[in-house]
Amino acid sequence: MSEKLTMGERAYELIAHRIVSGRLPPGLKLKPDDLREDLQLGTSPIREALLRLASEGLVGMHGQRGFYVPQVTEEDLLDIAMVRTRLSVWALEMAIEKGDSDWEASIVAAFHKMQFLMKRVIDDPQAHFEEWEKLNAAFHRALESACGSPLLLRFLQIAYARSERYRRHFVRYPDLLPKAQEEHKEIMDAALARDTIRATDALRTHIQSGIDVVLAAMRRRKAASVQAAPA
């Protein structure tokens, strides 16, 4: 049983990463046989993973007709942003109250790893963007990690993944990284100073800045597709 659970978890991680990164694009029908060949895993763990991802919103279901990658819409993005912002702020408030020196050290370490990598990402985004995304996620996890609620952290993980799918689908923004990192520093400094109001305000601003960039990119792409459509 433990081996099956391990394979199910592996299938979950691999499929989720392919969806978030855009390798499995919006609207694509997810056929277990195709995924089995791609992932080199059995049908049972793949189906288990698809059902789990469907419960989290990264996969859609057509009743008995199978699974698919959900389309991207402004309404869905704004819904995700609202939930992620509220949960992130709540988690940070509790983490500032409960966090110890290990929590502080984890935030500083995560920030400095991003700072060290940033120039390389700007110079060669193709080679280092994936690593940056991992470090970005790790920084936000570090901020939230001392909140004391495993369930809240799980919900945040789901909201973050769904938000990241939009960012990766619409934006490749090495030129925006310095501003994002400035926002990270503002959040970090306020959190380490135990200034809850300043930290949560900075976090709200940071999340909203990212959403605004994605929304603008979505609208530009939509306008371009309308202009390109035959009359």
From TrEMBL:
<dbReference type="InterPro" id="IPR000524">
    <property type="entry name" value="Tscrpt_reg_HTH_GntR"/>
</dbReference>
<dbReference type="InterPro" id="IPR036388">
    <property type="entry name" value="WH-like_DNA-bd_sf"/>
</dbReference>
<dbReference type="Pfam" id="PF07729">
    <property type="entry name" value="FCD"/>
</dbReference>
<dbReference type="Pfam" id="PF00392">
    <property type="entry name" value="GntR"/>
</dbReference>
<protein>
    <submittedName>
        <fullName>GntR family transcriptional regulator</fullName>
    </submittedName>
</protein>
<keyword id="KW-0805">Transcription regulation</keyword>
<dbReference type="GO" id="GO:0003677">
    <property type="term" value="F:DNA binding"/>
</dbReference>
<keyword id="KW-0804">Transcription</keyword>
<dbReference type="InterPro" id="IPR036390">
    <property type="entry name" value="WH_DNA-bd_sf"/>
</dbReference>
<dbReference type="InterPro" id="IPR008920">
    <property type="entry name" value="TF_FadR/GntR_C"/>
</dbReference>
<dbReference type="InterPro" id="IPR011711">
    <property type="entry name" value="GntR_C"/>
</dbReference>
<keyword id="KW-0238">DNA-binding</keyword>
<dbReference type="GO" id="GO:0003700">
    <property type="term" value="F:DNA-binding transcription factor activity"/>
</dbReference>
